[in-house]
Amino acid sequence: xxxxxxxxxxxxxxxxxxxxxxxxxxxxxxxxxxxxxxxxxxxxxxxxxxxxxxxxxxxxxxxxxxxxxxxxxxxxxxxxxxxxxxxxxxxxxxxxxxxxxxxxxxxxxxxxxxxxxxxxxxxxxxxxxxxxxxxxxxxxxxxxxxxxxxxxxxxxxxxxxxxxxxxxxxxxxxxxxxxxxxxxxxxxxxxxxxxxxxxxxxxxxxxxxxxxxxxxxxxxxxxxxxxxxxxxxxxxxxxxxxxxxxxxxxxxxxxxxxxxxxxxxxxxxxxxxxxxxxxxxxxxxxxxxxxxxxxxxxxxxxxxxxxxxxxxxxxxxxxxxxxxxxxxxxxxxxxxxxxxxxxxxxxxxxxxxxxxxxxxxx
Length: 362
Prior knowledge:
This protein is of the alpha/beta class and about 350 residues long.
């Protein structure tokens, strides 16, 4: 049986976008997590950008549900083109992205729908969760919610604060109404909502330019199972950048932005520091009237130092980036350098404490 791209004219409540490439061995788990939801009013749009034309097709065909819509690409699309390919086919009232390495927590859509219906003009974000075990927990029936203005979310990003990491509506950790996606595409400078360089952040900045506010759920909605997380060298673009893998270089080559432009105005100009790519997208895609926040120098530098520390632990040659970071800190003056060091130490201790706590929970 072949996957069917056709759906009835009336759209479902949720469109779940599943863009994938060369991960047929894990994409089936993502599909099953959708099929097992108690909420039934959804469509799953699989955009298959595999180099092999058969592997993912066979995985999708093994789950013959008419709500699954299969889109086969040329196999040569860039990441942002593949994500946008799934988005353009979506017919649902609310749209979220499920990466092939992620899973929907049990009953997550039922839980999420009640929040979406009460907030028709808001963004809804949820935490990035590494599951402690393979059998996933359900969200609470009574959602724990926090509300933020869009301006406050962006200002937390500009400081690279721990709160920003928790609440920012990256495409992989958020859900938004279709009408905001439609308006974002109309206003987009590139014609994409999931634009380059970082599609998950580029969409977040565009939607934050338009939404009424953001509702953050302190619940597991989308999670990464430990079996997949343990193979993160294979499935994580972020780690590929920090360890300077050839796959990351190939990803950069698919982006229609020269590397010099990517790093324009960056204080620590290295493509292997992911904050630089996100800052580029912030400057190009965030356009909320009357709100023009600036990147906080010490907060940015502290984030880059934490990334370099982790990359060094993994064995990456970080000497060029350390030199650039030192020049940036000296150039900002002694007060800025002191702020950077204090933030670096505090955030490092906080991250280690949270990691130990999570290990205890397991």
